[in-house]
Target: 1,4-dihydroxy-2-naphthoyl-CoA synthase
Amino acid sequence: IAWQSVKTYEDILYHKADGIAKITINRPHKRNAFRPQTVFEMYAAFTDAREDPKIGVILLTGAGPHTDGKYAFCSGGDQSVRGEAGYVDESGVPRLNVLDLQRLIRSIPKVVIALVAGYAIGGGHVLHVICDLTIAADNAIFGQTGPKVGSFDGGFGASYLARLVGQKKAREIWFLCRQYSAQEAMEMGLVNCVVPIAELEAEGVRWANEILDKSPLAIRCLKSAFNADCDGQAGLQELAGNATMLYYMNEEGSEGKSAFLEKRDPNFRQFPWRP
Ligand code: 2NE
Model:
């Protein structure tokens, strides 16, 4: 696949090719831990991919290996910039802006696939949990560290994780802070498949291409339907927003707008009351 660089960032790489966007966290010296700047850049790249009608699938991955030979997807918040009330950006403001990114990944009406090589730990683990699908390399290592390092993610990081692996396993993951192999992750339903590290990206592209052959509107509605099951009113808003979009796209919805603009009464009697 002939990746084209979209824009140069400090902490991430952003590429596109043939309907696929690829966002790579590029801080291998920190096991791809994110600082606020990293998250701002990821948010911008995800927003660009969302707005691009040619893009249907977004791959999220981590650069590597580092010079010590180790791989990482992401090791969570950069503890070296953690201040009194979050992770401190260059202007000195502490924030937890990864929570905004989590919501964007979850609600973006395209398929987001995490490609995990090496560590997916802490807030980095939550990022793969949020993605629609996860393809793990055989060297992937999964785990939460919050209670060990004085943090926790009680949002999607706890509740959605429990939807994936069940309550008992999710509590084990958070309360014991163990690390799990790719095979263990597969057995607990945390990932979709495990492939040799050398095949990770190619497998991601293969899955993306299978998805790109499918109906964009069907995938869009399915994603929001899966979200609606867990996301309360925000989930219903997404699902209903798609219903509104489809209504705008058909003749019956357009009749209301046309009648208003043409200063006439709408003729809704021409449309059937379907069973
Ligand atoms: C990821 C892990 C298990 C890797 O271990 P290992 O032994 O392979 O590497 P090492 O030596 O620990 O790390 C290599 C370099 O990366 C830095 C380290 O400090 C080290 O730097 P140098 O000594 O070479 O200079 N590094 C790794 N992770 C970092 C991090 N998160 N922040 C800053 N520097 C990091 C091992 O490194 C590990 O356990 N990392 C910490 C994982 C962690 O606890 N993450 C934060 C969880 S809290 C969170 O992410 C969060 C949240 O809970 C809620 C909201 C937002 C964020």
